[in-house]
Structure formats: C-alpha cells, structure tokens
Specification:
Elements (H helix, E strand, L loop, with lengths): L5 H6 L3 H12 L9 H7 E12 L5 E7 H14 L3 E12 L2 E11 L6 E14 L2 E11 L10
Helix pairs in contact: 2-3
Length: 151
C-alpha cells in the first residue's frame, strides 16, 4: 500500500507517532469527516479491532471488527457527536519486529470540555516493509471495578 500523503509514511516510522496518528484520525467535531484514508493506511489490511461491551446485567462481551466494519460502526456516532480521544500515558514493550503498546486515553466531546470517558487501548504492531503496521487494537473503558493500575 503506497502513501498518497508523505506525512502518512512518516506516521508509520516510529511507535509513538503511529499511535498519535490513530487518535488524530478518529477525533473531531460532530459531523466533521474523519481521515479514514489515513486510518486505513496505518492499519494492516487484515487488522482487527475489539471493543468490550458491558451488558445491562454487568456481563461483558467482545465485538470484533475489521477496518471497514469499525469505520461503519463509528461513523454514525461521529456524525452526531463531537469526539476527541487523546493519549494520557503510554507503555511500549518491543521484541524485534513486534511491539505492544498500552495507551491510556481520555475522551471528550470538544478539546476543552470535561472528560466523558477514560480507558486503555492495547495495540499490537509489527514492523515490516520499512514501516510499522497496526495489526490489532483492543480496548476497554474505565468503570466501577475497572480502573487503571499504576504503571
């Protein structure tokens, strides 16, 4: 996959930059188009995302998406709601060409509005063909009984 924007290639050259780029792609005011072309470029063609969902009875389940399913799922929410997700802490573990990132985040409806949720992304990456690729992203939000441990 060739970058149509030179900045996109730069996004893939180090781990903190690719993580920041992911957050930039999904953040913006209500109704504003998100940079899905850039988002797709960051993701491996076979990448997966997994959202944890808390049921009314307190049980949880996983919802798994490929890249296009994820975009289809969140697009209606972003059309109606402002959403700005920013990283507040990061821990990277790397072995050779493989990396795991714990990325803690806060989400707001506008850059200066109160926090609406906090959570953690578990992001798995692989370095191949001269760049980092996102292979999977799994996330969960803070809630009663599920809070950040100190790193």
């Amino acid at each position: 996959m060739q970058a149509t924007n030179p900045q996109w290639w730069q996004d893939t050259q180090d781990i903190p930059t690719i993580v920041r780029a992911i957050y930039e792609c999904i953040s913006g005011p209500a109704g504003a188009p998100r940079d899905w072309a850039r988002f797709r470029f960051l993701q491996h063609p076979r990448a997966r995302s997994l959202r944890t969902v808390v049921e009314a009875d307190g049980g949880t389940r996983a919802v798994v998406f490929d890249v296009e399913d994820y975009i289809d799922d969140v697009a209606p929410y972003f059309a109606a709601n402002g959403f700005y997700e920013v990283e507040i802490d990061q821990r990277v573990e790397r072995f050779g060409q493989v990396a795991h990132v714990w990325s803690r985040y806060e989400a707001r409806e506008a850059p200066d509005s109160p926090v609406i949720k906090r959570g953690a992304n578990s992001i798995q990456l692989c370095f191949e063909h001269g760049r980092w690729w996102v292979f999977s992203t799994v996330w969960d939000n803070e809630r009663e009984g599920v809070v950040f441990d100190l790193w």
